[in-house]
Write a structure and sequence with these properties.
By secondary structure, the protein is mainly alpha-helical. The protein has a single domain, classed as Hypothetical protein af1432. Helix content is 64%, strand content 0%. It has eleven helices and no strands. Helix 4 packs antiparallel against helix 5 and helix 7 packs antiparallel against helix 8. The longest helix has 24 residues. The radius of gyration is 18 Å and the shape is globular. This is 5'-deoxynucleotidase. It catalyses: a 2'-deoxyribonucleoside 5'-phosphate + H2O = a 2'-deoxyribonucleoside + phosphate. Its cofactor is Mn(2+); Mg(2+); Co(2+). Keywords: Cobalt, Hydrolase, Magnesium, Metal-binding.
């Protein structure tokens, strides 16, 4: 049975804006150092960090040819979509934390960043609104970035399979590529699956 995840206490404002803002800047470091749980659970050596994942998503957003999308907004959505994980970590379904509980934990983390660390400043509100937009999945940009999330994970799974021949990461493909809806990203996913099939054939 998996060990129950424990969460660090939420930050309490010192009352000094500069001190609290620096506290936010420092907590961002956790996105650089925390490994993505799914890869760790599958025994992937040198697994990517949360920020590794978000960085490639941001660059992928810049690669779209969809002129209907606000690309700059997509990049910002990619950068903030997992921001709450700086506080709560990368929670996966196998940990026994329900979706409503996970959502509540992440909302508490984001509100803590905004109110206690960034003192409800305009930048703080921009970050929170972007995070909420992604969570609500009501705009074309949010849905596009969700598809980038799926495609990026599948890409990483294939890259890990190439260097870890003993790993079968099929579950990551099953939970991502078939659910991509944006036409261009779906094409990227199809190309990735074809590349994976060729690679697997070469290894037989």
């Amino acid at each position: 049975m998996a060990t129950k995840r424990t969460f660090p206490p939420l930050y309490v404002s010192s009352g000094d804006k500069a001190t609290d803002q620096l506290a936010f800047f420092h907590i961002l470091e956790k996105l650089k150092t925390q490994k993505r749980t799914g890869w760790v659970d599958h025994g992937i050596p040198q697994a990517e960090s949360i920020s590794d994942h978000m960085y490639r998503m941001a660059v992928l957003a810049m690669c779209t040819s969809d002129e209907k999308l606000d690309v700059a907004r997509c990049v910002m959505l990619a950068v903030v979509h997992d921001l709450a994980e700086a506080q709560v970590g990368d929670i996966t379904p196998r940990e026994g934390i329900s979706k409503p509980e996970k959502r509540q934990l992440e909302e508490e983390a984001m509100n803590n960043f905004v109110h206690e660390m960034l003192h409800d400043s305009p930048p703080a509100k921009r970050i929170l609104n972007l995070w909420k937009e992604y969570e609500m999945q009501e705009t074309p940009e949010a849905r596009f970035v969700k598809d980038l999330d799926r495609f990026e994970m599948a890409s990483q799974a294939f890259e890990y399979e190439r260097v870890n021949s003993d790993k079968d990461l099929q579950t990551f493909f099953d939970s991502s590529v078939p659910h991509i809806r944006h036409e261009e990203v779906a094409q990227w996913g199809d190309s990735l699956l074809k590349e994976r099939a060729r690679s697997m054939g070469d290894n037989l």
